[in-house]
Design brief:
about 675 residues, alpha+beta, Rossmann fold, D-amino Acid Aminotransferase, Chain A, domain 1, Dna Ligase, domain 1, 6 domains, eight-stranded antiparallel sheet, 17 helices, about 30% strand, globular, PreATP-grasp_dom_sf, ligase, biotin, ATP binding, Rudment_hybrid_motif
């Protein structure tokens, strides 16, 4: 009989109050343990993978998170309707909401996580710092007081010494945070931080901290139960970050002195004992690179995104541990039974364009192929549609090996062989990061990305040219009509018996446009692109394609050919140059087209078809990247067509409105 059926708090059915990869990951453990699962979904996620994997699914509201995944009453109603004994919150959304924990308790439903008091105690950064100081846990020199007057805060900043960080007390993710390097900049920075904090969290309280110039971000995985047991499962390094959001995580942390590691564990356990902590938690620290004195930052009272690296080195399932503790059972292992074996590194796969300042990407995935021999936690599959309502993270790639070098090598191979075709992702960027000397040496700080890519990231030109050549060769072998360009008379040049047939092609993809001269001869395919000659050899018309020892994945979707090879992906539109029409007239027509500058949500259209507009008049408003953009008429004329509606999610470069020129009226 399952231990959950006879536990002090029996659990048979678990509702997962989350979405995406973490919901799928929780479902996998529940299924292994014989527990029934219930998914919840918004209208945007009706066809999502976690909905298909669960035993039962319930709609909880429209796409905005505030009306669905943050709607506690709707989630509790779904739990009652499904007969759920427990709710697992995953991470984000309601996972650190003390009010929701209390609501679960009042409804007689087990909350898979810590007590409401523990969540509340650590939920405020100011209160958490006070508790840490009282428990003797070292903290960054700063101010966490109740007096929030501008004069007092300015005086405390002077006492701490510049540079200082202003941080929102109630939130994270970089919102409500400002770095101030000079006293004269403090007041405007404080106003900006407070405004941002009030908007994001409904609370403009701030704290001040001494700014550490070259910090490492370290954290300790802790676990407690209701029987008084408390353990740590070693530490992680999460120093590679973008806008204070983690990109890579690994365990154990490389190049940490033994004395610093001991201090991390001691401080984390001391803090947890001070609040009587139970369930999974993570205590986060900051430490100067090359130092040995970690300072407490905050505690996350939930499962972390990066928990798989701890699972890999400790050989445990932390979701199973959460369920056991929630059911009132003791931890399965004591501290002296927990051993760290080997090294693990995780990379977060996100739908975003690193080459465009990490602009979010939207659309439908046409193929998702995981690499062999490596853990891949995903919330997407072929056919999954993603929009702008939720976080851009799609999946995680986790590599484990007997040492860091082998784990890193496996991660690099995994990033090379992973194929996620559809909306753009950060895969090529991650692979580039993983091969940099500082990363390979385990010597990174939170400054790694801005120092490595001071002018922003761009794909390697040689690798991009190679992938474009592969795409053109595959296109040439698999025309929709079953023929090949080599059998066509237009655009085809016979160069003689000793020279191959050649065809000039124009390729457009997310990185721009290129012209290629493709040749097919006795030696197979050769491409001339951007001054480079790329020999591809013979490629099969069907079956597996392997080039330079790496698999190629290609999927046609309408007029786009999606191709992945060696960690890079493009969605290409390929046309024989002779078929490319002269675009001067089309360009003139395009002057009257209103184009989406970013993927976003249409929020207002103050015009109707047939309306007259002057150049510069507002035509459409959209939200993109958390900002409101008003798009104006590029020319004077009449609204000829509107291709979207309020509430639509539109892709970058989509034609939204067409305006006929006034001269054409």
């Amino acid at each position: 009989m399952s231990p959950f059926a006879t536990a002090p708090r029996p659990i048979r059915t678990v509702l997962i109050a989350n979405r995406g990869e973490i919901a799928c990951r929780i479902i996998a453990t529940c299924r292994r343990l014989g527990l029934r699962t219930v998914a919840v979904y918004s209208d945007a996620d009706a066809g999502a993978l976690h909905v298909r994997l669960a035993d039962e699914a319930h709609r909880i509201g429209p796409p905005p998170a505030t009306a669905s995944y943050l709607a506690g009453p709707a989630i509790l109603a779904a739990a009652h309707a499904a007969g759920a004994d427990a709710i697992h919150p995953g991470y984000g959304f309601l996972s650190e909401n003390a009010g929701f924990v209390r609501a679960c308790e009042a409804a007689g439903i087990v909350f898979v996580g810590p007590s409401a008091d523990a969540v509340a105690a650590m939920g405020s950064k100011i209160e958490a710092k006070r508790i840490a100081i009282a428990a003797g846990v070292p903290t960054v020199p700063g101010y966490h007081g109740a007096d929030q007057s501008p004069d007092r805060l300015a005086a405390e900043a002077k006492r701490i010494g510049y540079p200082v960080l202003i941080k929102a007390s109630a939130g994270g993710g970089g919102r409500g945070m400002r770095l101030v390097e000079r006293p004269e900049d403090f007041t405007p920075a404080l106003e900006q931080a407070r405004t941002e904090a009030r908007s994001a969290f409904g609370d403009d309280a701030v704290l001040l901290e001494k700014f550490i110039a070259r910090p490492r971000h370290l954290e300790v995985q802790v676990f407690g139960d209701s029987h008084g047991n408390l353990v740590h499962l070693f530490e992680r390094d999460c120093s590679v970050q973008r806008n204070n959001q983690k990109v890579f995580e690994e365990a154990p942390a490389p190049n940490v002195p033994d004395v610093a590691r001991a201090r991390l564990f001691e401080a984390a356990l001391r803090l947890c004992r001070a609040i009587g902590y139970s369930s999974a938690g993570t205590v986060e620290f900051i430490m100067e690179a090359g130092g040995d004195s970690p300072y407490f930052l905050e505690m996350n009272t939930r499962l972390q995104v990066e928990h798989p690296v701890t699972e890999a080195i400790c050989g445990v399932d932390l979701v199973e541990w959460q369920l056991l503790v929630a059911a009132g059972l003791p931890l399965p292992l004591a501290q002296d039974q927990i051993r760290a074996r080997g090294h693990a590194i995780e990379a977060r796969i996100a739908a975003e364009r690193p080459d465009l300042g990490f602009q979010p990407a939207i659309g439908r995935f046409v193929a998702v192929s995981a690499p062999a021999g490596i853990r891949f936690d995903t919330g997407i599959a072929a056919g999954t549609e993603i929009g702008l309502h939720y976080d851009s993270m799609l999946a995680k790639l986790i590599a484990h090996g007997p040492d860091r070098a082998s784990a890193l090598a496996r991660l690099e191979r995994g990033l090379a062989d992973l194929a996620v075709l559809g909306p753009a992702t950060n895969q090529a960027f991650l692979k580039d990061c993983a091969t940099r000397p500082a990363f390979a040496a385990g010597q990174v700080t939170t400054r790694f990305l801005p120092e490595t890519f001071p002018d922003g990231w761009r794909p390697d030109a040689g690798k991009l040219a190679h992938l474009r050549a592969i795409a053109c060769a595959i296109w040439a072998l698999n025309l929709p009509d079953g023929g090949t360009p080599w059998t066509r008379r237009d655009g085809f040049r016979v160069m003689g018996a000793r020279r191959p047939a050649c065809l000039e092609l124009v390729l457009e993809d997310e990185f721009g446009e290129a012209t290629l001269d493709m040749a097919c001869g006795v030696g197979g395919f050769t491409a001339l692109i951007d001054g480079r000659t790329i020999a591809l050899g013979h490629l099969p018309r069907s079956g597996d394609i392997v080039i330079d020892g790496r698999p190629v994945t290609a999927v046609a979707d309408g007029d786009l050919l999606h191709v992945a090879h060696d960690g890079m992906v493009i969605a290409a539109r390929i046309t024989p140059a002779i078929d490319v029409t002269v675009r001067s007239a089309a360009a003139a027509d395009a002057d009257g087209m209103l184009i989406a500058p970013l993927p976003g949500l249409v929020t207002a259209i103050p015009v109707r078809t047939g309306d007259m507009v002057a150049e510069g008049d507002p035509v459409l408003t959209m939200e993109a990247m958390k900002l409101v953009h008003t798009l104006s008429a590029p020319v004077a004329g009449r609204i000829a067509a509107i291709h979207c509606a309020v509430g639509d999610t539109v892709a970058a470069k989509a034609v939204l409105v067409e305006i006929s020129h006034q001269s054409e009226e």
